[in-house]
Amino acid sequence: YDVPTRNALLHFLLTMSLSTEQFQVAGPRHPIVAVLGEDAILPCFLVPAMNAENMELGWFRTTFSQTVFIYWNQWEQTEEQMAEYRGRTSLVRSCLTEGHAAMHLRQVRVSDNGMYTCFFRHGSFYEEADLEVKVAGMGSAPQVHIEGPEEDGVRVVCKASGWFPKPQVQWRDFSGNKFPALSEAHTQDSEQLFSVEATLVVRDSSVGDVTCSVLNPVLDQEKAVAIYIPEPFFPQASPWKPAFAVVLTMLGLLLLGGCYFVTKEHSTKIQVRQEKEDLPRLKEEEQQAKEEALKAIGSVTLDPDSAHYRLSVSHERMRLTWKYPWENLQPHLPTSILFPSEKCSVLGLEGITSGRWYWEVEINNEFFSKWTLGVCRKNSKISGLYMELPERGFWVMGKRDNCYFAGTDPVTWLSPWKDTYRVGVFLDYSEGDVSFYNMINGSHIPSLELSFHTLCLCMESPPTEVSTTSQKDLQLGTKLLTHEPLEYISVPNSNKL
């Protein structure tokens, strides 16, 4: 060869050698967990390690037409990039000279979940590797409420939203024992986030606390909320049912064995007779157990010093009357006395510093459109309870403008709540929780978290008359005076549990 020919051949061989320098591309061995709303790093590296600054690098979805990120001629290229990734990707350049490249993905979305391909090209030679991104997001804490009686138990519902991927729901008792769910339904919203609604029927009236936990299977993290189910919520099982089943069983055995053994027939009749004789005793024991469960350990009385100046507390502190009874109103009295605009309220005398407490408030005035009840921190300033919030030391619910509400910020309107004339209040001081129940259908509103301070029962309404009567179970009655005829509110079963 002449000199020019040899030079050209040498240049060709050198170029071929450089462009066909072989390497492999490797990605992470395990899926990359990316948390919703946060940033993620998608790394790949060369084997053997070599400088990748002058290489073409790319990250794609399932095909090369689905471009996530391109780096070429030492510049980030955006012309072919998918619209959903623009402005959210960049190259981590710190280790390019060592053959390590990574794409920085910002503000992770549900749509980022899935498989990716990272691509390295040098000259005409290229290699690629697959990597998986698992997007995960923790949604809302579960909301648990009692929906009502169900056959021989109580139906409890647990709801949560904003989770990804599909969450897992588990019911447990106080000891950690698991309950099988009656049903579990999942839905996805427009952002592909999951909502779940799980239902449980609790049949053991002594179970006490029931916990609903929602688990993210990717993050292996859960959010859990417990609810206490008071024993009075359970349908009282009649002792006739199990006894009747026993009687039927015995009669069946009697008929079967009577054909062969007269002595067995006689023995079975005696046993059946004994079961029947035991029924009254079983029924009486059941009633005694029920009464014992509802028996008041502590009493709730009214604090005369906390009563509105238009209210008068009786000497036994169990009756509250309005100083201007409806029947004694005189037409010439000022409007401010007839219909005062300020809220009239009263507190319970006993401070609550421990334990579990349960009481019910019964409202029988269909015209009565505004009322509030609940608990408040000791020494809290009362300035219209239905506007007070937990941040100010009040945990209340009530009715205003024919709508029920919970005293949260912002106000939680309980539009699905069916109309009620009896509200149950359950206070668990040790758990820092107060719950309200519609005692007509057993439904429950989301619990309010308490701060650990001395608490007092509080009630607020337009001008009121409150009366109490002492029975086997303490009953606190509130007589309400509105612009309509008078009716009563009562608070039976005021118990420390």
From TrEMBL:
User: What name has this protein been given in UniProt?
Assistant: Uncharacterized protein
Has the keyword Membrane been applied to this entry? yes
Q: Return the Pfam families for the record.
A: C2-set_3 (PF22705), SPRY (PF00622), V-set (PF07686)
The lineage's top-level taxon is Eukaryota
Membrane topology annotation: Single-pass type I membrane protein
Membrane-spanning residues: 243-263
Q: What is its main location?
A: membrane
